[in-house]
Specification:
Blueprint lengths: L11 E3 L2 E2 L11 E3 L2 H5 L7 H13 L21 H32 L4 H26 L7 H7 L2 E3 L2 H28 L12 H20 L8 H23 L2 H6 L4 H16 L5 E2 L5 H21 L5 H24 L3 E2 L9
Helix pairs in contact: 2-4, 2-7, 3-4, 6-7, 6-8, 6-10, 8-10, 8-11, 11-12
Length: about 350
């Protein structure tokens, strides 16, 4: 994987504006796509469901939800040390991910406006939701005397090009795993209010419903394009994106287990639950899902975590860069082998499951 475990400081671009986290394979990415190819899609086979989802977006159930209340109006200096650093990092990563969605959906809306009005309006309203999420998170950062310059982020980040079908796989999983992450934290803190160290977690129940609706929208688009789901290539790509999303979350969260401990969660138990629920949800549309109950799944991810810890130690050592490369190479190869093994692990074929919703 990457040696991305160095503890970031809170370096500022200018007073109160945080330097964006360094881009690695584990950080939220910004995407672009082939807008013309997307405009040519024939969605008529599932148009009724897409129109119904558009009506839900228009209803804007959360238009009055993201309003800061009196609980925010206090000092948060008691959240300090490592907990403060990890919490700021959580807010930054979450804000960056939401802002990435906003940029993609906004551009899709603009490019499709004259070619596919139904999709254009849907993407416009989803970008509205993502903008609210990003803005709310960025405002939370200001409680810790920091913020992100989202305009700077727009211009400075590299954009990853994905063909439309890959955009659909990735964003569907991103939205659905976002739902399970938020609702799991919300339910835990509702049962254990003593662990709620900051009021933003109270907003997660309604918030995650935006993520769920967005995921349903991409589900409906994919089912309008049978070629994205029903051939052997689709099965391979679905396995790839499931593994990528699950592994990224797991590697990120375990190396930041202190944040989850601060809100009373065990990072491994939390991730295992979220991965299992997201995998199960994906099985409603994807032709295959991963066998995440196979003990080898987490054992091999844990090998990658240990490898990444060693990579970080090497990167932080005084060893000359040339020698560092030779020290890192076996660890990179080990990570590659773990991921190849997991990718080739026999998946669960959902097309043969009785009563599968298609």
């Amino acid at each position: 994987m990457v040696d991305s475990l160095k503890k970031p400081d809170l370096e500022e671009l200018r007073p109160g504006v945080k330097v964006p986290a360094k881009e690695t394979l584990l950080t939220p990415r910004f995407y672009t796509t082939d807008f013309d190819e997307m405009a040519r899609m024939d969605i008529s086979v599932n148009e009724d469901e897409l129109k119904a989802l558009l009506e839900e977006f228009r209803a804007d159930y959360n238009r009055h939800h993201f309003v800061r209340d009196a609980e925010f109006e206090q000092s948060w200096d008691h959240i300090d040390g490592e907990t403060r650093r990890l919490f700021v990092e959580f807010l930054e990563r979450s804000c960056t991910a939401e802002f990435s969605g906003f940029l993609l959906y906004k551009e899709l809306s603009r490019r499709l406006k004259d070619k596919s009005p139904l999709l254009a309006e849907s993407f416009s309203l989803m970008s509205r939701d993502e903008a609210r999420h990003a803005g709310f998170l960025n405002k939370a950062l200001s409680d810790f005397n920091l913020s992100l310059d989202l305009g700077f982020l727009t211009k400075s980040r590299k954009y990853t090009f994905f063909k439309p079908k890959f955009i659909f796989y990735a964003t569907y999983l991103s939205e659905k795993i976002g739902y399970w992450r938020y609702i799991t934290i919300y339910r835990h803190l509702a049962a254990h209010p003593e662990d709620r160290i900051y009021p933003i977690f109270r907003f997660f129940e309604n918030w995650c419903q935006d993520e769920n609706r967005h995921g349903d929208f991409f589900d409906a688009i994919m089912r309008s394009q049978p070629q994205m789901l029903n051939d052997w290539k689709a099965k391979l790509w679905c396995r790839f994106f499931l593994l990528s999303v699950f592994a990224t979350m797991y590697l990120n969260d375990i190396q930041r287990s202190g944040f989850y401990a601060a809100i009373g969660l065990d990072a491994r138990e939390y991730d295992t639950y979220v991965i299992e629920k997201t995998n199960e949800t994906a099985g409603r549309v994807f032709p295959v899902i991963l066998d995440v109950e196979n003990p080898e799944f987490y054992r091999r991810l844990d090998v990658c975590i240990k490898n990444n810890e060693k990579l970080s130690a090497i990167a932080n050592s005084n060893t000359p860069k040339v020698l560092q490369l030779f020290q890192k190479l076996p660890l990179y190869l080990s990570n590659a082998w773990q991921f190849l093994w997991l990718y080739l692990m026999k998946p669960i074929d959902m097309t043969s499951v009785q009563g599968k919703v298609r």
